[in-house]
């Protein structure tokens, strides 16, 4: 009986020690993810804490990029986060050469801090031809924001020099431009004049908003002519449209470019 009593005391002490050990060493809480600060993050200078975050990113190009055409200047994209957790990235491509460009194709990447692609979208020019000393905006909309730290980067994938002088597209002159800011969007109005020798069966206008840092904050593309409507040489066409900046702030510059073209 003494032996059974000693065994019972030993078992009781073993349970007591185990319980004390569990109390002294609780299960560690799950560790929170230690995210690296987003490279190049710049918060809007006037953003309210209650407003959705709309960050912008500026990065140094990664590695050496060989462009299909050297006479192209491609700005880094600036990205804006929406309340729906989508991401809109805007940028600008400029023809710095002396020959018109067409078939522009731009890849917009979301890269990890190590440079690995997390998401990619291809964008095209809103105008068929980009003439010398002019530029156009580009846009990429990502439906989801990567969970890890990322940076935005753009790469020109394709561009073709236009050697054919008989282009179906031609510039339209913008006159009497007026812009009115109403605390949420711009009302942009004016006239387009066809100074070419060819009639246009369609007229397309691109209105771009730039902030004080010359970053693109929004743009809109609109076709103005109705079906069977023609803009003959020396004729004018009025336009009136609304353009909203994604950062919900008044811009510094409003750029308007337009082209006429012949529909087949």
3D structure, described in words:
- The chain is mainly beta and 264 residues long.
- It folds into 2 domains: 36-165, Immunoglobulin-like; 169-261, Sandwich (Immunoglobulin-like).
- It has 1 helix and 14 strands.
- It has one helix spanning 2-24, and strands at residues 72-74, 78-81, 87-95, 101-112, 117-124, 129-130, 135-142, 150-161, 169-181, 186-193, 202-210, 216-223, 236-243, 253-261.
- A 6-stranded antiparallel sheet has the order 12-11-14-9-10-13, with no helix packed on it. Strands 1, 2, 3 and 7 form a 4-stranded antiparallel sheet that branches. Strands 4, 5, 6 and 8 form a 4-stranded antiparallel sheet that branches.
- A hairpin with a 5-residue loop joins β2 (78-81) and β3.
- It is globular, with a radius of gyration of 29 Å.
């Amino acid at each position: 009986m003494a032996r059974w009593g000693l065994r019972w005391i030993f078992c009781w002490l073993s349970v007591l020690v185990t319980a004390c050990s569990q109390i002294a060493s609780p299960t560690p809480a799950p560790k929170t993810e230690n995210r690296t600060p987003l490279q190049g993050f710049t918060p809007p200078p006037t953003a309210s804490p209650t407003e959705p975050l709309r960050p912008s990113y500026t990065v140094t190009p990664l590695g050496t990029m060989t462009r299909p055409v050297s006479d192209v200047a491609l700005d880094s994209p600036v990205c804006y986060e929406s309340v729906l957790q989508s991401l809109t990235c805007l940028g600008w491509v400029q023809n710095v050469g002396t020959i018109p460009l067409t078939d522009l194709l731009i890849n917009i990447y979301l890269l990890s801090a190590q440079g690995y692609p997390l998401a990619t979208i291809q964008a095209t020019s809103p105008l068929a031809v980009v003439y010398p000393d002019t530029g156009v905006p580009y846009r990429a909309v990502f439906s989801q924001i990567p969970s890890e730290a990322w940076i935005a980067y753009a790469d020109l994938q394709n561009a073709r020099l236009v050697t054919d002088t008989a282009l179906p597209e031609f510039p339209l002159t913008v006159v009497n431009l007026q812009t009115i800011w109403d605390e949420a969007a711009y009302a942009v109005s004016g006239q387009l004049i066809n100074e070419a020798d060819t009639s246009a069966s369609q007229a397309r206008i691109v209105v771009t908003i730039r902030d004080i840092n010359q970053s693109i904050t929004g743009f809109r593309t609109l076709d103005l002519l109705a079906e069977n409507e023609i803009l003959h040489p020396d004729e004018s066409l009025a336009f009136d449209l609304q353009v909203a900046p994604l950062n919900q702030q008044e811009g510094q510059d409003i750029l308007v470019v337009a082209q006429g073209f012949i529909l087949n």
